[in-house]
Amino acid sequence: MISFIVHGGAWNIPDEMVEAHRAGVSKAMEIGWTILSNGGNGIDAVEQAIRSMEDDVTFDAGRGSFVNALGEIELDASIMNGSSLRCGAVASVQNIQNPITLARLVMEKSEHVLLTGMGAVRFAKENGIQQCRRDDLLVARELQRWKTLQSQRSFSTKDAFKADLPSDTVGAIAFDNKGNIIAGTSTGGTPNKYPGRVGDSPLIGCGTYADSEVGGVSCTGWGEAIIKVVLAKTIIDRMEMNGADGDTAARFGIDRLAKKADGYGGVIVIDKHGKPSVCFNTPRMARAYRTSEMNSTVIEV
Ligand code: ASP
User: What is the pLDDT of residues 253-279, one digit of tens each?
Assistant: First the structure.
């Protein structure tokens, strides 16, 4: 049994952007699936699938990310190996093209879990990842959005989600042929965020979690609310402690996000048997999944 699932954000994706989201998650899915179906490991599948969405300007991750209040791009990412519970994350990193690869390096080559800002960039350099230019990440659409938001008198992150602003964080979960469950998430955060603001995506247990004896989770949505309910680990605990299946646990998590923190978002889940689940309380969520028991990939936006 192998299975793979990816997401490209949950929000009110307008009709004219549906095709780009379909294409982006479909490409990422194909990349991860090819690795897994050739006997590759889940870490490579998750990293490569997320890299492809970081490189796709459709999504708020890597190139095409939102701009913070100072006009800078600060990126967050995390990855977790559910078989060893080893994990790695980076937060508020600047001028890094593929933060998921840096998160993987933190997991595999450091004794730490989370590196931030300049320290993360220093670690990148030591491990052969050079900084890119801001212009390699910045796209005209986001520069324009930033100018518009700057001209508004007050603007909160929550407003961003209420006002249907994009929430295009990306994530992936793999169940490989050795039964390893790997989860990862990457984001540019929220539009016009305060410099140094860190959301749920690089926080293990909030935006990402994996335990191969239970399942894996990657989240997207309003990070401040997701952090309050420790969404990814809440879903894992529901499966582990209450014996819930992935669908029930994902629904429990999203209901809790809404009720306790007035939050919006979406989650993807793979349970210990490799079964994928999706749940969201936004109008749309971009996702794609496949298992070795299916003949083709499901792609939905
Ligand atoms: N969860 C991300 C954050 O708050 C944003 C998103 O999912 O779009 O940083």
Answer: 999 999 999 999 999 999 999 999 999
Query: How far apart, in whole angstroms, are the C-alpha atoms of residue 102 and residue 244?
Result: 34
C-beta 186 within 6 A of ligand 1: no
Question: How does DSSP classify residue 29?
Answer: H
10 close to 25: Cβ distance less than 8 angstroms: no
User: Mean of the per-residue pLDDT values for the chain?
Assistant: 95
Decide: 37 and 2 in contact? Cβ < 8 Å. yes
- What pLDDT was estimated at residue 277? 98
Q: Is 159 helix (H, G, I), strand (E, B) or coil?
A: helix
CA of 134 to the centre of ligand 1 (A): 20
What CA–CA distance (Å, rounded) separates 270 from 89? Answer: 20
Task: Name the catalytic one among 58, 101, 157, 169.
Answer: 169
Across the range 175-191, mean pLDDT stands at: 97
pLDDT value at residue 167: 85
Strand partners, 280: 266
Q: Which of 203, 191, 195 is nearest to 227 (CA)?
A: 203
Alpha helix positions (H), 40-82: 42-55
Name the band, by pLDDT with cuts 50, 70 and 90, for residue 235: very high
Domain count for the chain, please give it.
1
The answer to whether 106 touches 122, Cβ cutoff 8 Å, is: no
Reply yes or no on whether the pLDDT at 105 is more than 70.
yes
- pLDDT exceeds cutoff 60 at 163: no
Q: How many CB atoms lie within 10 A of CB 158?
A: 15
Domain with 196, as residue range(s), is 3-300
Distance between Cα 109 and ligand 1 center (Å)? 26
Contact 45, 180 (CB under 8 A): no
In the sheet with 276-280, reading across from the earlier edge strand, the strands are 208-211, 215-221, 265-271, 276-280
CATH number assigned to the domain comprising residue 286: 3.60.20.30
